[in-house]
Amino acid sequence: MPNYTIDDIRDAEGNDQHLLGYSGKIARIDLTTGEVSLMSTYDYVPKYVGGRMVINRIFFDEVAPGTGAFDEGNKFIYMSGPTTGVGIPAGGRSAACAVGAANSPEQYAWGNIGGWFATELKYAGYDGLIVQGKADEPVHIRIEDDKIEILPADDLWGLRVHQAQAALEERYGHEFKSMVIGPAGENLVRIASITTGNDCVFAKGGFGAVWGSKKLKAITVRGSGVLAPADMEKLEYLRFNMNNPGMRPSPVLHMTEIGVPGAEFPVNYDRGNVACSPGCNQHCNALLMDGRSAFGDERVNHIEKCVSICTFDYRTDIPTTVGMFWPTKENYCAPCKLLSREFPEPDFSDPDFEGQGTPIAPDTLNFWGPDYDRGTIVNDLCNEYGIDKWEVIIFMMPWLAMCKEEGLFDGMDLGCESPIDVESEAFLREFIENLVYRRGEYGDLFAEGMARAIRKLGYERFSETIYHGRRSQMLGGKRTDLPVSLEAAWGQSVHWQGRGFEGAIEKPTWLAMSLINMVSTRDAQTVEHFHCKYDYHEAAMADPYHCPHTIDAIVHTQNAAEIKDSVMSCEWQSPDLWWPTMEAEMYAAATGYPMTEDELNDAAYRSKLLFRAILIRNHGRCRRMEMESIWRILCVPDSWNEVADWQSWNEMVDLYYEARGWDLETGWPYRETYERYGLADVADEMGRLGLLPERPAERWRDYGEPPFVQFAENRKLEPDWEG
Amino acid sequence: MAESDGSALPATLDELAAYGDHVVQYSPDYSLCAGCETCAIMCGLTHFGVTGPHVSGVHVNLGTRDCIHTIEACLQCKDRPCYEACPKKGQAMCYDPDTDVTYVDQGHCIGCGKCMRACKFEPSRITLRRAEKRKGWRAVKCDLCRGKEGMPACITYCPVRCIGLASDSVLVEAGMHPAEPNAL
After folding, report:
1. Distance CA A37, CA B76 (A)
2. How many Å lie between the alpha carbon of A571 and the closest alpha carbon of chain B?
3. Residue A541 and residue A574: Cα distance in Å, rounded?
4. Which residue stretches of A397-449 are H helix?
5. Distant-in-sequence contacts of A66-71, Cβ < 8 A, 24+ apart
6. What is this structure's pTM?
7. Which of A139, A255, A367, B68 could pair with A314 in a Cys bridge, judged by C-beta atoms 3.0 to 4.6 Å apart?
8. Distance (Å, rounded) from C-alpha A314 to C-alpha A366?
9. How does DSSP classify residue B179?
């Protein structure tokens, strides 16, 4: 029975602290046996807060080492948070984890998503779902309050994302909210996504392929219950104060230009802004209206966030300012305000106005020229087939452009009848559809994701060849080398890492971003964009590798990610560096529990430790593995033609490991670190497995030789090599 | 406006004369509904301290795929079919002649659902919520937050100001609203 009154929630069995905000149950759905069982959310909260923190605990307890993405033992664990659906801004989001299919090698991965599904699931009485096992035939899960059914999906299997969404609505009613996969997930395409009814996606983990391997096409839910926050007064305060909501009309506007700032081109379309999930006080998703569809003559609306902008034109990268990552209090602006174009007037009284506003001109990349219609088609193909736009737009398309420019495709057709041309809509459609349906040798190859495909094609040639078309505007148009493959750590593409996409950023920033990605398992920049107060910018620039403020800010950024995926909040709303108690206040408003900033931070440390323990125990994670994964991209020059220094980079990693309480040689947490955050049982298990390091008598500094990077060797052969 | 077509909304000032003051959705040219459902959430919280699909007097019909969302709330019909259908009218379904607002007195409502079925609009602008202690049902409809200071909660909290009161909107005078949200 869902909760129908406040008392239902407050006095639920197991809710000893009488918390509000939660629905109270987690449903376990076994696709192998068809069994459904329930767990109490209150077995995990408030210690594990909600969302990703609860998931990490469950995954550590339940998923054995050696489990692969497509194994029956892999579990897709999905959780909302206590703020989800109760009217606290940004709380409508939710999180999921599983062994990912998209990362390389396969490792435990995480994702978060907007949409209406999570709130509806809570109305039905569930804070989360554990989907485990594998069905023999295609199925979908239908949830209506108490009733959870595993039903055939023969007639849904094969449908594109929005066809499946529409079919479920038609069958069960508009009130049902669904998450579905498209044909890509069905065909185990490793970059397959899971999509809500309003185009929010779990994209980066390859979870769509995990669903496909379980023969799970969709989960659809309707609930009749209620949710209740604990503190209306605080809720109201949050609504009117979190990132200064505009509280003013947001009209549909006719746009006459689009593109990367500074390189806009003429277009003719309408644009509005919408929110991604219930209860938010912002509306940062752009709604590009009445655009071309990839399927027939109908006109469709496209949701666009950050990366889609590059589908329209990718001659130059994204311009930035110092203050984007090193903001001052006076001129701080949450990303949601930038995306909805409601940024406030600059505060000229800011004593650091000039410094934080220093523009950083983007690299000229010349990957493809302006074409709005082509961009909408690419976006629509990704949306409808259910594949990760990021991999397509930032990894695949630039790779195609660069390889062609360097003549690497001479004599090849990549399995397409259309000539290889990243500016050709016909070619892109054919290439993408081949991989979605695994057509032919190349379709099957690229369905494995770019990192795996490149290795099969020939790593030295198709990854390490120099692209000669990049020009640094920060060096007056000087050519700066770029490899044709923009792969960074764990088989994922670059993202705010100083080269390639969103490349022109300063060394302290790209070092921090790279470290954050290095200790993750996927591109972490969806919830872990590095930020540090401008007060520390000068110190960081003076010594990018050893600045303690940078290390503190990295830890803070990562902890904030754990918190925002658990309380629930949002990358575009939090953290607010000048409102450090904001998430704790959100939690308290939702639950009534007197959460403090320190207690929430401890929970974040705890969650990060569980994540670390999973990586070490299940996937063999260690320092050497991390350094080998990240080092190549650090050997690619930034916009100032600078690369990382091996010794200094190791010293920076040392500082970070020490801040985390991890052993320098192995990268494994010490027992005392686990115990400090209430994870003695985890320490015990790691000890049993021989994965608990002893503190060395002397500080470890044996960094050894850096991993070999062919691209770095290739650079030395260039006529203008300045190494 | 053709009342026989329950899905239609009044489109002119003359048609609006059949209704009392009520919550209206503006044209997307003025402000596009963000689909955040803040109006519905805050309605439930303001009236009952909870939020859910059946505890709000305002409903957002979410546009899957196109993300064009429609706000649905009671239009405060001057002929009051819901009031007339109520077996305890004057006690459960009540009418405030000073404001033209028809509202539900939760203490007297018996949850028979006759008001909901009598609503001339589709979907009905009246829902049924579970009563406290789960004993029976209670009708829920927009009462324009009568008795509370200021504007109705849905309007107060809407972050994009895409809804307002029919009588309070300059757009009504300009003939710009209530528009059909899909008019784009």
Report:
1. 46
2. 17
3. 25
4. 397-405, 425-436, 440-446
5. A66/A618, A67/A99, A67/A618, A68/A99, A68/A106, A69/A98, A69/A99, A69/A100, A69/A101, A69/A106, A69/A190, A69/A206, A69/A209, A69/A210, A69/A213, A70/A101, A70/A188, A70/A209, A70/A210, A70/A213, A71/A99
6. 0.96
7. A367
8. 6
9. P
Instruction: Collapse the DSSP code of A503 into the 3-class scheme (helix H, G, I; strand E, B; otherwise coil) and give the result.
Output: coil
Q: Per-residue pLDDT for B167 more than 90?
A: no
Tokens 């399995």 found at: A415
Angle between helices A232-241 and B38-48 (to 10 degrees): 160
CATH superfamily placement of domain A6-222:
Aldehyde ferredoxin oxidoreductase, N-terminal domain (3.60.9.10)
φ, ψ at A284 (rounded to 5°): -90, -10
Residues of B in Cβ contact (< 8 Å) with A225: 52
Q: What is the CATH number of domain A489-716?
A: 1.10.599.10
For residue A436, give both structure tokens. 């979605």
Only one residue has tokens 């009117």, namely: A240
A527: its two tokens: 């919830």
Which residues are CB-contacts of A343 (< 8 A; sequence separation ≥ 6)? A333, A337
Distances in whole angstroms, Cα of residue A149 to Cα of each of A126, A299, A679: 14, 35, 36
How distant is the Cα of B94 from the closest Cα of chain A, in angstroms? 25
* CB interface of A with B, residues 135-174, below 8 Å: 162, 165-166, 169, 174
Which tens digit of pLDDT belongs to each residue from B63-100?
988 999 999 999 999 999 999 999 999 999 999 999 99
pLDDT tens by residue, A313-348: 999 999 999 999 999 999 999 999 888 888 889 999
Count of C-beta atoms within a 10 Å radius of residue A1:
10
Token pair listed for A66: 């050696």
Residue A647 in contact with partner chain B when CB distance is under 8 A: no
Task: Compute the count of residue pairs across chains A and B with CB atoms less than 8 Å apart.
Answer: 148
Q: Shortest Cα distance from B146 to chain A (angstroms)?
A: 19
Residue range A602-617, pLDDT digits in tens:
999 999 999 999 999 9
| Residues in chain A closer than 8 A to B182 (CB atoms) | none
**DSSP reduced 3-state for A100:** coil
Q: Which two tokens stand for residue B176?
A: 């710009």
Residue with tokens 């759905």: A29
Domain boundaries, chain A: 6-222, 489-716
Q: A78 in helix, strand or coil?
A: strand
Q: Is the dihedral of CA A172, A175, A179, A183 positive or negative?
A: positive
Residue B70 contacts A where some CB pair is shorter than 8 Å = no
Q: Are strands A139-144 and A216-222 parallel, antiparallel or unpaired?
A: parallel
Distance, in Å, from the CA atom of A210 to the CA atom of A207, rounded to the nearest integer, reads 5
ipTM: 0.96
At B122, the amino acid letter reads E
What distance in Å separates residue A299's CA from the closest CA in chain B? 10
Identical fold for domains A6-222 and A489-716, yes or no, is: no
> What one-character-per-residue DSSP string does A542-587 give?
HSTTT-HHHHHHHHHHHHHHHHHTTTT--TTT---TT-TTHHHHHH
* Per-residue pLDDT tens over the stretch B116-139: 999 999 999 999 999 876 679 999
Rounded to whole angstroms, how far apart are CA atoms A526 and A529?
Answer: 7
Which of A201, A222, A234, A252 best tests the B interface by mutation, with the highest count of B CBs <10 A? A252
| Tokens found for residue A274 | 């919408």
A186 burial (CB, 10 Å; 0-12 / 13-18 / 19+) is buried
Going by the DSSP 8-state scheme, the letter that residue B26 receives in this structure is P
